[in-house]
Write a structure and sequence with these properties.
309 residues, alpha/beta, eight-stranded mixed sheet, four-stranded parallel sheet, 10 helices, globular, binds threonylcarbamoyladenylate, binds magnesium ion
């Protein structure tokens, strides 16, 4: 606990000086900076080697703070009440008087916002006078980090501090829902669409869209930089083979996503597994054919995107 207090203090100190730091969320780790500062947010793009046209998600403690920057609509209120804090990002209309840096939005009139659930990140947000812009803490197009160590592997000493919140519980990014016009799912993620549909009494659907010109739909996301093939029964010799659940026969090239046939556990392990495979310098990844239901749909979407490179 004492450790947490000094880590939060250090985080506040660095963020107030417009530095970027690594932060834990329930989805994946983020690379956070003051969303109101041009200096701080331009550092995020530089560190991540992220194209300027790709806007950032801004993280708030609660709705009260958000009101300074965005218009609050009925759908948002309904979902906020039941699902936040949690793994969902909303795209909203930006207020003219908002202090959000133009770097964050790429001069657009909308803003992506999220209320993260991790207790340490919430503690930090509560103490700050500004919201935090935070994309996933990986070099652009790479694998999102799920531990402090992963963030360190991405940026080394280029960032001054990583707030350690343990392993990310969900291990996949947030679901993105556009509420700036008719509701539309922009990215599958940690929160299932059927929960949103139930609350909004709608039938929103999502099919994998691959378009390098639309934010969030780029095929260059989540990529370990190694060719991936899905639905493989017999993997090529020397390729890493990702299996859904553990098998009795051992093989050093086999990597399983869950011990207990549990889809959430598989989701939590996906990025970690891809990172290990990359470290072991495999040249090819095969993925076993399995039924991608529930959060499994997100696993499939990430693998399909990673395989299109
Ligand atoms: O779980 C998450 O959402 C994590 C944690 C750190 O919060 N963040 C995350 O950020 O995944 P990032 O930058 O890696 O992905 C955000 C996606 C990008 O694909 C971006 O194009 C899209 O959100 N986005 C941001 N602002 C947008 C906007 N105004 N309209 C549409 N898409 C937007
Ligand atoms: Mg990302």
């Amino acid at each position: 606990m004492k450790n947490n207090i000094s880590s939060i203090k250090k985080s506040i100190y660095l963020l107030q000086k417009n530095e970027c730091i690594g932060v834990p969320t329930e989805t994946v780790y983020g690379l956070a900076a003051n969303a109101y500062s041009d200096t701080a947010t331009s550092r995020i793009f530089k560190l991540k080697k992220r194209p300027k046209k790709n806007p950032l998600i801004v993280h708030y403690y609660d709705m009260k703070d958000l009101k300074n920057d965005c218009y609050i609509n009925k759908n948002l209120k309904k979902l906020y009440e039941k699902l936040c804090p949690g793994p969902i990002t909303f795209v909203l209309k930006l207020k003219k008087k908002s202090k959000i840096s133009k770097n964050v939005t790429n001069n657009k009139k909308t803003l992506a916002v999220r209320f993260p659930k991790h207790f340490l990140f919430r503690k930090l947000l509560k103490k700050l006078q500004f919201p935090l812009a935070a994309p996933s803490a990986n070099i652009s197009t790479g694998i999102s980090p799920v531990t402090k160590q992963d963030v360190y592997e991405e940026f080394g000493n280029k960032i001054k501090f990583i707030l350690d919140g343990g392993r990310a519980k969900i291990g996949l990014e947030s679901t993105i829902l556009d509420l700036s016009k008719n509701p539309r799912i922009l990215r599958l993620g940690g929160l299932e669409i059927k929960k949103i549909n139930k609350l909004l009494k709608m039938k929103l659907k999502y099919s994998i869209k691959l378009n390098n010109n639309i934010p969030g739909q780029s095929t260059l996301h989540y990529s370990p930089g190694i060719p991936i093939e899905l639905d493989i029964l017999e993997p090529k010799k020397n390729s890493a083979y990702i299996l859904f659940k553990k098998r009795k026969n051992k093989n050093k090239n086999y990597f399983y996503l869950t011990k207990n046939n549990n889809m959430e556990e598989a989701g939590k392990n996906l990025y970690r597994t891809l990172r290990i495979i990359k470290k072991r310098k495999y040249k090819f990844i095969s993925v076993e054919k399995f039924l991608y239901n529930g959060i499994g749909k997100v696993i499939k979407e990430r693998l399909v995107k990673a395989s299109k490179k």
